[in-house]
Amino acid sequence: MELSVIILSYNVRPYVWQCIDSVQAALNGLNAEIMLVDNASSDDTVQSIMRDFPQVRVVANTENLGFSKAYNQAIDQALGEYICILNPDTVLAESVFEPLIKKFNTHENLGALGVKFIDGRGQFLPECKRRIPTPKGSLKKLLGWSENNQGYYQDNLAPDQEGQAEILAGAFLMMRKGDYLSVNGFDEHYFMFGEDIDLCYKLIKNGLQNYYVGTQKMIHYKGESTQKNRQYLERFYGAMIHFYRTHFSQNRLELFAVWMFAQILIMRRGIWPRKSKVMDGSPSLVVWVSQRNEIPDSLRQWLPKGPWRIDPDQVKIISPKDLNLQHLENARLIFDRASMSYSDIIEAMAQGVEKNQFFRIWHDKRGLLIGSDSSDAQGQALYLSE
What we know:
By secondary structure, this protein is an alpha/beta fold.
């Protein structure tokens, strides 16, 4: 088998449903499998996926093993020559896999491959390509001495370019299974956070090069799998400290300084949590982007009663091919998945960010309206026909 796509889920049923739907479309024509590892979700994720996607191999854990253990567990069972580690709150373009597989055949010593991330607003997420975070660099970032995070992200590569990048994000990592096993996979000390940095760094130390392909895009909603509370902060900074102790133990003074300021930030964020910016109130304009001239009944019935409180007859209907011809500032766009590819949806979102647009995707198959207005907060996922 050529490729195994492995998705980890925990109480994100609608997002993992959409993720698998996009992966299934992206694997058309490839000899591949989809694996779902569920960390004891309580929201009937397993039953829903087994019902709607019977071809998916499901590993249902009876406890939450965390990120690293669960992925190691699945990859041991994966049949593909290549593996793709994927977060559940992602959406892939149909074209993503074939160009990446070709990269492995044309570039020597490739370790992991990554792609360009945009969030639910279409905004570029710079963490998809980073430099190795040394203790000194991270300390400068924590102290605010690193202007515009200079030296933290792989800024020598523009978002749409491709080239060598030291650290790629674990929301999408593609590599040979043999290379993953050669560095003993994810360090299971990391429950979540930091395991992708550690893995990428181990690949580099093993003589391989990680590579960023900015010509391929995907959505990473980002705010779905975790809530940014005190436990989040402790796990995040705890992972950072473990990485430094493992790989930079000789820099003890810098390591102590990073630990100290991380503790200060944990206390500060615990007292004054950061507020995310999300869209408030009703949108001035709602646009149905579809080749169909009618809005589905369940969506039509919800619009005047939901938080948007929009008269369905006031919704503007636009064909996907005419979308770029319209001036739709501050509008809420609903993409009709039944008449649009994921590639077209992702491209429309990437272009709409300059118009301050907000986005939702409508799935007739499940009566699902889904999207996110901020990468710092949970999005909106509604089953309107259940």
